[in-house]
């Protein structure tokens, strides 16, 4: 029997295997940010241990950096300073605030060409699954594991299972990659992928540009998966070629041969397979407080009693928190804020999709609208295309790169009770600020909603 | 990490499913540079509700948390584990755990005990009926002990040994330095190194 892509990458990285123990895997790239790493560096200092391979490690600052001209507030500043100090002390390259390469860690690594097919990549952040879009095996780890990777360049892990999510058919024109992944999560649930690597397969995935694949892989963790992955193909190779850290010359040819051999074998068997018909998808809007609690924009807020028995309790709690009444049409829900950003949807394609809707229109008065590019490079590219003018003229704030309102660690937060259409990945209670109410949507729906003042499709706008 | 063999005491019936780590410890607590100082942030938002079970004095001093399925989903923040430990919890019993949370818990000696919905439900009913009910988690024998219930749970040998002996993972791996160095010599030459492009 053949192997799946994720199994091939796993086997290639086993440094040590012993019966009854997790495999010890080599880590090709370790991404580090300011929030989950300070205690790991402190652990190294206490044990007088060096970083084994600083050149396989990249640091940046993203979670709590301000995205406007204000200086970071004092507590965040300490963490930002600690990141810079730790990078210096341990010889790690860091793209700090103010660097043209700074940005959300999961945006900058693919953009630099550091994320490549067949690699193992870890980071102290659950959205590390993003990098699977390029055919890398990438997953989030905790601070103790960060310290372990820094010290040894390896990680001990039990082998995950495999799962295939096969999406076939042409995506309707008003649907985006975000709607595909929200549909997948709605189908398999927030723990549908626990213990498994999800490989996204099928004609819909093959037809998606890299940005869309990154959005889908990004939210694998929202289905509980250990990682998400897409088989590398010509779209992957074309996207990588010429990027700063991509292989060059002879190395490029060798790498291509190798990457082509990674594809899941035709006779490979997955532990579980799920099929999705893309032709029947509609744009999704989450109504609840976990990413599986969603309906399409044509639907109404569900009646908890009509849901499966084990979903009712959390649905009732979610509706109370979100202040929503069952039966309300999704399009009738008004919002106070719109956030376009995050490692899910803050790449150039995402900003362009939103700008297409905003062009020549204005945000409904009273709505706070934020556009936060995923990296300073994305910001510069967008400005070269004039997208900043479109956002600003439409009434959006045009910010610097960072995680921003996705998780409310910097001053970009919702006020208690505020409702937000957000292109981010988590609608947990208080995620965007204590008492804030989050609805996850695609960039185009977020933009249309900013104009209409309530959930809307671009085609709803006059 | 401290060795942990048996945990016994009161249990707190949280009994909610899909508890994400943003609820366990909200993000603004993540700005600290230390591994300590998180107890006050544990379930910070839910604790504002006086009826929230963590505010119920009858469960004060609980060492076991009884939770619903998919406990610890979402963010990878290890701070969630630190906040639970600092608040006195030594084990979480739930029908299932999110992968990263489980790893983080085991690294810190917080024992994730997986028991099916029915058994977890029985334990919840027991401690709701009598908050003084003592529940024990025996890591060595892989069983949970409560009045009238004595389920066994699964934990792999490696994780169990690590808990029982309180082993330092890094020291363990550094013993295999020869294997790591041998692996490094075979890595493809095109793989990226983070130096100036």
Summarize the structure.
Chain A is of the alpha/beta class.
Walk me through this protein's architecture.
The complex is a heterodimer of chains A (462) and B (197). Chain A is of the alpha/beta class and 462 residues long. Chain A folds into 2 domains: 5-272, 2-Layer Sandwich (Aconitase, domain 3); 286-460, Aconitase, domain 3, CATH 3.30.499. Helix content of chain A is 32%, strand content 17%. Chain A contains 15 helices and 19 strands. The radius of gyration of chain A is 21 Å and the shape is globular. In chain A, 62% of the residues are buried. The mean pLDDT of chain A is 97. Chain B is an alpha/beta fold and 197 residues long. Chain B has one domain: Aconitase, domain 4, CATH 3.20.19. Chain B is built from 8 helices and 7 strands. In chain B, the strands form 2 sheets. A 4-stranded parallel beta sheet of chain B has the order 2-3-4-5. In chain B, strand 3, helix 3 (79-86) and strand 4 (91-94) form a beta-alpha-beta unit. In chain B, helix 3 (79-86) crosses helix 4 (99-108). Chain B starts with 5 loop residues before the first strand and ends in a 12-residue tail after the last helix. The relative contact order of chain B is 0.17. Chains A and B meet through helix 2, helix 3, helix 5, helix 10 and helix 11 of A and helix 4, helix 7 and helix 8 of B.
* Rounded mean pLDDT score of chain A: 97
Percentage of residues assigned to helices of chain B: 25-40%
Can you tell me the CATH superfamily of the largest domain in chain A? Answer: Aconitase, domain 3
- Structural class of chain A, by secondary structure, is alpha/beta
Overall tally of structural domains of chain A: 2
**Computed structural class of chain B:** alpha/beta
* Radius of gyration of chain B, whole Å: 19 Å
- Report the sheet with the most strands of chain A, covering strand number, pairing sense and barrel closure: 5 strands, parallel
């Amino acid at each position: 029997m053949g192997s799946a892509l994720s199994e091939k990458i796993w086997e290639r990285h086993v440094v040590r295997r012993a019966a009854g123990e997790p495999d010890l895997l080599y880590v090709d790239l370790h991404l580090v940010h300011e929030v989950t790493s300070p205690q790991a560096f402190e652990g190294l200092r206490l044990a007088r241990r060096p970083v084994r391979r600083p050149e396989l490690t990249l640091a940046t600052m993203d979670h709590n950096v301000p995205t406007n001209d204000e200086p970071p507030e004092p507590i965040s500043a300490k963490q930002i300073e600690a990141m810079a100090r730790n990078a210096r002390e341990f010889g790690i390259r860091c793209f700090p605030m103010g660097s043209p390469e700074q940005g959300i860690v999961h945006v900058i690594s693919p953009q630099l060409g550091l994320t490549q097919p067949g690699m193992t990549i870890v980071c102290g952040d659950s959205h590390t699954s993003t990098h699977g879009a390029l055919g890398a095996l990438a997953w989030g780890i905790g601070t103790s594991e960060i310290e372990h990777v820094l010290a040894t360049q390896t990680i001990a892990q039990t082998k995950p299972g495999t799962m295939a999510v096969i999406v076939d058919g042409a995506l309707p024109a008003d649907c985006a990659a975000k709607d595909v992944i929200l549909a997948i999560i709605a189908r398999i649930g927030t723990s549908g992928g626990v213990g498994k690597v999800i490989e996204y397969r099928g004609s819909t995935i093959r037809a998606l540009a890299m940005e869309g694949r990154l959005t889908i892989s990004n939210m694998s963790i929202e289905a509980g998966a250990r990682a998400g992955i897409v088989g590398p193909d010509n779209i992957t190779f074309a996207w990588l070629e010429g990027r700063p850290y991509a292989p060059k010359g002879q190395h490029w040819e060798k790498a291509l041969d190798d990457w082509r051999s990674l594809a899941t074998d035709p006779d490979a068997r997955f532990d579980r397979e799920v099929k999705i018909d893309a032709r029947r998808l509609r744009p999704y809007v989450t109504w609840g407080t976990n990413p599986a609690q969603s309906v399409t924009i044509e639907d109404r807020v569900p009646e908890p009693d009509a849901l499966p028995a084990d979903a009712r309790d959390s649905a009732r709690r979610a509706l109370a928190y979100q202040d929503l009444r069952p039966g309300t049409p999704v399009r009738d829900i008004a919002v106070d804020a719109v956030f376009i950003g995050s490692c899910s949807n803050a790449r150039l394609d995402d900003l362009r999709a939103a700008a297409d809707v905003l062009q020549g229109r204005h945000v409904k008065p009273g709505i706070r609208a934020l556009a936060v590019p995923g990296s300073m490079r994305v910001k510069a590219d967008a400005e070269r295309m004039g997208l900043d003018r479109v956002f600003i003229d439409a009434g959006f704030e045009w910010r610097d790169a960072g995680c921003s309102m996705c998780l409310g660690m910097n001053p970009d937060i919702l006020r208690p009770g505020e409702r937000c259409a957000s292109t981010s990945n988590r609608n947990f209670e208080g995620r965007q600020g204590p008492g804030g109410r989050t609805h996850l949507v695609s960039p185009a729906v977020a933009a249309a909603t900013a104009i209409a003042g309530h959930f809307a499709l671009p085609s709803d706008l006059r | 990490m401290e060795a942990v063999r048996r945990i016994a005491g009161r249990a707190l019936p949280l009994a909610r499913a899909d508890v994400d780590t943003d609820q366990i410890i909200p993000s603004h607590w993540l700005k600290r540079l230390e591994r300590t100082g998180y107890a006050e942030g544990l379930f910070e938002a839910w604790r504002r509700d006086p009826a929230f079970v963590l505010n119920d004095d009858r469960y004060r001093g609980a060492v076991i948390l009884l939770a619903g399925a998919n406990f610890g989903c979402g963010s990878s923040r290890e701070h969630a584990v630190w906040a639970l430990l600092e608040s006195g919890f030594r084990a979480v019993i739930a029908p299932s755990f999110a992968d990263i949370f489980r790893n983080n818990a085991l690294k810190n000696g917080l024992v994730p005990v997986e028991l099916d919905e029915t058994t977890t439900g029985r334990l919840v009913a027991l401690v709701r009926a009598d908050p003084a009910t003592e529940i024990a988690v025996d890591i060595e024998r892989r069983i949970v002990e409560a009045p009238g219930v004595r389920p066994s749970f699964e934990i792999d040998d490696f994780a169990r040994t690590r808990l029982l002996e309180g082993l330092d993972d890094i020291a363990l791996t550094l013993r295999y330095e020869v294997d790591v160095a041998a692996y490094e010599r075979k890595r493809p030459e095109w793989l990226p190194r983070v130096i100036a492009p």
